[in-house]
């Protein structure tokens, strides 16, 4: 518990730093002076605070979504971006944009979540039909499925002249977050709370269908609940901030190395570390080429891929 409190304090410190990093001159001195007609306070309230909240909500919820998916699929190298879930959500958002462009963002998000749920269900159906002799075949199947769905999405985006919009959706970036266009991310927080409430059920489901049934739980209901939570989180983050790769893969694995596999214990750790990791990457992206900014998906992708390779090689070494 003491270590978790320290992790929370470190995340809050990163959040405080995030409020004062950027091109606009926002500092404690300018806020107290009230100069330039309160411009610093306006930037803080309209841009910096919503952006920091969006980073925390997106980072924590996507990390928890990765943990839930790993429990449901029973594979440590699966997360929304390696199971076709994110690509399916992108296809759903494209379909909503083409056919119901006047719908509010909440309606488009629900369509995106429906497509994400269908894509994840298709991924699980393929896994049941393919003989899997290696743990790495599962994410490989998901990556191939995601590539096919992504190709279909790009084709229709090209035909309807929506390729720039598609790029904007799939490129994770918090620079456009302002007050009034990030509030859907609170749904992700609610899904994360539900994941904690049902953590024991997901832990049991991760031990297999027979074991779950013997304990008196409905395995199918637990699976459906997990897939719905993952789909909602993936869709909410996609329509609000874009895709953040590898986050749901590396954070649960790192937490598992630290505190074990009991989901009731790991969910708070995963949420805090996910938020802190994305905050650190976002601050780094704003400082590397200051005053320009590198999208969060690029920074997380580079760092996450390196950690993923470490985890992969570590697993191979232990298996040998």
> What is the number of domains?
1
Q: So what's the oligomer here?
A: single chain
Q: What's the overall average pLDDT, rounded?
A: 87
Radius of gyration: 20 Å
User: From N to C, what is the helix and strand string?
Assistant: HHHHHHHHHHHHHH
Q: Kindly, what is the distance between the CA atoms of the first and last residues, rounded to a whole number of angstroms?
A: 35 Å
CATH C-level label:
Mainly Alpha
The fraction of residues assigned to DSSP E strands is under 5%
Q: What's the β-strand tally?
A: 0
Largest sheet: none
CATH fold-level label: ABC transporter involved in vitamin B12 uptake, BtuC
Query: Structural class, please?
Result: mainly alpha
CATH homologous superfamily heading: ABC transporter involved in vitamin B12 uptake, BtuC
Helix content: over 70%
Explain this structure:
With 320 residues, the chain is mainly alpha-helical. The protein has a single domain (47-319), classed as ABC transporter involved in vitamin B12 uptake, BtuC, CATH 1.10.3470.10. The protein is built from 14 helices and no strands. Helix 1 runs parallel beside helix 13 (263-288), helix 3 runs antiparallel to helix 11 and helix 4 packs across helix 5 (105-129). The two termini are 35 Å apart.
């Amino acid at each position: 518990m003491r270590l978790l409190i320290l992790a929370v304090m470190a995340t809050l410190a990163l959040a405080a730093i995030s409020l004062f990093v950027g091109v606009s001159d926002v500092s404690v001195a300018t806020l107290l002076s009230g100069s330039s007609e309160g411009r610093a306070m306006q930037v803080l309230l309209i841009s910096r605070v919503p952006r920091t909240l969006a980073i925390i909500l997106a980072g924590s919820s996507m990390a928890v979504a990765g943990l839930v998916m790993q429990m449901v699929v029973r594979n440590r190298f699966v997360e929304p971006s390696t199971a076709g879930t994110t690509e399916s959500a992108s296809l759903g958002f494209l379909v909503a944009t083409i056919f119901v462009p006047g719908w509010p963002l909440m309606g488009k998000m629900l369509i995106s979540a429906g497509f994400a749920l269908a894509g994840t269900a298709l991924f699980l159906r393929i896994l049941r039909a393919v003989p899997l002799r290696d743990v790495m075949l599962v994410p490989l199947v998901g990556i191939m499925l995601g590539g096919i769905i992504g190709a279909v999405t790009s084709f229709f985006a090209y035909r309807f002249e929506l390729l720039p919009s598609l790029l904007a959706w799939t490129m994770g970036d918090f620079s456009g977050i302002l007050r009034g266009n990030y509030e859907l991310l609170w749904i992700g927080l609610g899904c994360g709370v539900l994941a904690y409430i049902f953590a024991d059920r997901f832990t049991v489901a991760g031990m297999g269908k027979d074991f779950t049934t013997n304990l008196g739980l409905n395995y199918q209901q637990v699976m459906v609940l997990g897939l719905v939570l993952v789909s909602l989180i993936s869709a909410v983050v996609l329509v609000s901030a874009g895709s953040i790769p590898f986050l749901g893969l590396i954070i649960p694995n790192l937490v598992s190395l630290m505190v074990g596999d009991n989901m009731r214990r790991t969910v708070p750790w995963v949420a805090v570390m996910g938020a802190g990791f994305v905050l650190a990457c976002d601050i780094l992206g704003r400082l590397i080429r200051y005053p320009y900014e590198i999208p969060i998906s690029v920074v997380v992708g580079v760092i996450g891929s390196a950690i993923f390779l470490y985890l992969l090689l570590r697993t191979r070494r232990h298996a040998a």
